[in-house]
Amino acid sequence: MNQSLEKNIVLNNGIEMPILGLGIYAPGEKNEVRRAVNWAIEAGYRLIDTASVYKNEEEVGQGIKDSGISRDELFITSKVWDDQQGYESTLRAFEQSLERLQTDYLDLYLVHWPVSETRRETWLALEKLYSDKRVRAIGVSNYYESHLDELLGYASVTPAVNQFEQSPFLYLPDLLSYCKEKGIQPEGYAPLVRGLQHKNSVLMAVAENHGKSTYQVLIRWALQHGIVTIPKSTNQERIKANFDVWDFAITDAEMDQLNKLDAGIRVANDPRDY
């Protein structure tokens, strides 16, 4: 049983990345995102994950500015959206993200989805940004084994991170093993399954054993699998609660029970359709 967890992991190029962060897919009011980022930084989060398609990079940038925190204390991720992909258009999209976020570099830049027509050129653009030191690490999102096999056939740089949907209800041990074997850090989004499973009886029993919420158990489950995790919220109390997962450990027997909850439940698209 993993009693304690490091709050940072080391990527394949030697840089450190926080293992728990704030995901910011929040289509609501703009000020909501700005406040959420500020609250998260106050609560101890240092990883902030956004994307151009979320249309909130400006608010993320403002929230960071409001917090008064030094830029080098944060780990900021953004992603290039499907209709921005391709070599030159990815380079342009990156510059636009920097401008909106009010920063001159990103810590991590990801290909958001593996669009078949453009993913090679898009990856080569990310390699260019990386070699020019505009971004500290590059990676992909929603890539399954077949996408990664293809990418590794032409990549000069192995992706540092692969971000994909992951929870006990969509447990992908083969993909996790593949990433580990290739030195790619798995990062999971939608760890809380948008609240759809929070009353699951197995989940509730584990939560009760530890005096925690089912949401905290879902986050801790991912962390104990070595998955960087980015629960999304714009609610101040929930943001704080989602970060309060360092003082308990799920037992091996409980982890096994949770692993068996897999039912292929998704809240996002299936990458195999790409």
From TrEMBL:
<dbReference type="InterPro" id="IPR018170">
    <property type="entry name" value="Aldo/ket_reductase_CS"/>
</dbReference>
<dbReference type="InterPro" id="IPR023210">
    <property type="entry name" value="NADP_OxRdtase_dom"/>
</dbReference>
<dbReference type="InterPro" id="IPR036812">
    <property type="entry name" value="NAD(P)_OxRdtase_dom_sf"/>
</dbReference>
<keyword id="KW-0521">NADP</keyword>
<dbReference type="GO" id="GO:0016616">
    <property type="term" value="F:oxidoreductase activity, acting on the CH-OH group of donors, NAD or NADP as acceptor"/>
</dbReference>
<dbReference type="InterPro" id="IPR020471">
    <property type="entry name" value="AKR"/>
</dbReference>
<feature type="active site" description="Proton donor">
    <location>
        <position position="54"/>
    </location>
</feature>
<comment type="similarity">
    <text>Belongs to the aldo/keto reductase family.</text>
</comment>
<feature type="binding site">
    <location>
        <position position="112"/>
    </location>
    <ligand>
        <name>substrate</name>
    </ligand>
</feature>
<protein>
    <submittedName>
        <fullName>Glyoxal reductase</fullName>
    </submittedName>
</protein>
<dbReference type="Pfam" id="PF00248">
    <property type="entry name" value="Aldo_ket_red"/>
</dbReference>
<keyword id="KW-0560">Oxidoreductase</keyword>
<feature type="site" description="Lowers pKa of active site Tyr">
    <location>
        <position position="79"/>
    </location>
</feature>
<feature type="domain" description="NADP-dependent oxidoreductase">
    <location>
        <begin position="22"/>
        <end position="262"/>
    </location>
</feature>
